[in-house]
Design a protein that fits this description.
single chain; 427 residues; alpha/beta; Rossmann fold; GMP Synthetase, Chain A, domain 3; 2 domains; binds 5'-O-[hydroxy(phenylacetyl)phosphoryl]adenosine
């Protein structure tokens, strides 16, 4: 069943989504006062929801709703039905608390097992799970998925990098789950230990939780001699397991649309955008019990396509996330995301995939300083390199940083636990 649904016709999928949307809206309306108020304000009652297209009539849910209802005001079931709590990994303010019933956990395990299967992992594989265990959804989300798949899971959690490498080698880990920045750190640490990272048994890196550009993926794949498969998810919807690339095509992330209904909207106007146009991803949960979410504004910028994939899966695909709407930089009238800078800079072999962006305010103007690490073997002319990078940034993005500094290999701090930070806003 679970594999059939991945290749169901769009008509079958629509029917299932329509039924599940009806149930979700009714459940939210009846059990969450805030949803009831918002639906009434928008003059929508559960009976108005007939097909999945009616999702567009629903009001958005935002991070502000989570904040206002902290910790459990959005929960739609009684305490005794809740089996697990997690929290989002936000660094400022109160975390978003999320809850799961027994059925929610089962769905989560299933979508994670599906994601791993799509990544080319099977029940004979050993999966090393270097996502952090704890309130963060990465650790236990991957763990449950690997178990449901029947794989052997090694719960290393994050950090302790030398031991991760020894264990990967000694236990023959076929796959590793971790953030993209950590995958690179792992390769670097192996080299420092005198272990050739390409000789490690890892053949799949299931990376996610952070933005990863194409040149960054290539670095991961080359340095570890492995296939890099991106996965996407967020605590508010379930955790990891919302979308994943298939190993057959590695061409966009299949969204598990029987559980999470995607739209892309113009972040300014809130209007849905046509297929292929970039905007903010909005997700509606279609089966969640403990915490149903209606049209959640993820803040993540991406595009959607409904073209059938070479792998035969029929579910919509999203592009890798360009960045969060909040990360948009506006520098002298040019709008851009840090990932666009990464995309250009990492084209150069002379640099490492390690950089930082510092934002300052000077008078009324914003100032952006870019610091990039040089490759270990670099012995060329820095001024020439600077000129080349600046010309390339200008032609690709119509943008140049106020300052571009190159620093020695190893001088930008690595992130061993949690999500990497690339932008430092001093304004
Ligand atoms: O990061 C869930 C997760 C764990 C996904 C492990 C993948 C792997 P949160 O801590 O709630 O949940 O953070 C969610 O992280 O809204 C995105 O901004 C970002 N994010 C997640 N996956 C990707 C990705 C987990 N593949 C927030 N690319 C999301 C870019 C991502 N950003």
């Amino acid at each position: 069943m679970t594999e059939d649904i991945e290749r169901a016709s769009r008509a079958e999928l629509r029917e299932l989504q329509s039924k599940r949307l009806q149930r979700t809206v009714r459940h939210a309306y009846e059990n969450v006062p805030r949803y009831r108020e918002k639906l009434e304000e928008a003059s929508v009652s559960p009976e108005d929801v007939e097909t999945i297209d009616d999702v567009r009539e629903l009001p958005f849910t935002t991070k502000a709703d989570f904040r206002a209802e902290y910790p459990d005001g959005l929960f739609a079931v009684d305490d005794e039905e809740i089996r697990r709590i997690h929290a989002s990994s936000g660094t400022t303010g109160k975390p978003k608390i999320v809850a799961y019933t027994a059925d929610d956990l089962e769905v989560w395990n299933e979508v994670m097992a599906r994601s791993m299967r799509a990544a080319g992992i099977d029940s004979n594989d050993t999966v090393q799970n270097a996502y952090g265990y704890g309130l963060f959804t990465g650790g236990l989300g991957f763990h449950g998925g690997a178990e449901a798949l029947g794989a052997n899971v090694v719960p290393t959690s994050s950090g302790n990098t030398q031991r991760q490498i020894e264990l990967a080698r000694d236990l023959g880990s076929d796959a590793i789950g971790c953030t993209p920045s950590y995958a690179l750190y792992l390769a670097e640490t192996a080299e420092e230990m005198g272990v050739d990272p390409r000789e490690l048994p890892i053949s799949t890196v299931l990376y996610g939780a952070e933005t990863c550009t194409e040149p960054m993926r290539e670095e991961i794949e080359t340095r570890l001699d492995a296939t890099g498969i991106e996965n996407y998810g967020l605590s508010e919807l379930i955790g990891p397991g919302v979308a994943v690339e298939c190993h057959e095509a590695q061409d966009g992330l299949h969204i598990w649309e029987d559980h999470f209904y995607p739209e892309v909207i113009d972040p300014e106007t809130g209007e849905p955008l046509p297929e292929g146009e970039e905007g903010e991803l909005v997700l509606t949960s279609l089966s969640k019990e403990a915490l149903p979410v209606l049209r959640y504004r993820t803040g993540d910028m991406t595009t959607l396509t409904y073209e059938e994939c070479a792998c035969g899966r029929t579910m919509a695909r999203m592009d890798g996330v360009t960045g969060r709407a909040d990360d948009l930089l506006i520098v002298r009238g040019v709008n851009l995301y840090p990932s666009q800078i990464e995309d250009v800079v990492l084209e150069f072999d002379a640099v490492e995939p390690q950089y930082r962006i510092d934002l300052h305010r000077e008078g009324n103007l914003d100032r952006l300083d870019l610091t990039v690490e040089l490759a270990e073997e670099f012995d060329g002319d820095r001024d020439e390199l600077r000129e080349d990078v600046l010309v390339r940034l200008e032609s690709a993005l119509s943008f140049t940083p106020d300052e571009l500094e190159f620093v020695e290999y190893g001088s930008i701090e690595r992130t061993e636990v949690g999500k990497v930070k690339r932008v430092y806003d001093h304004r």
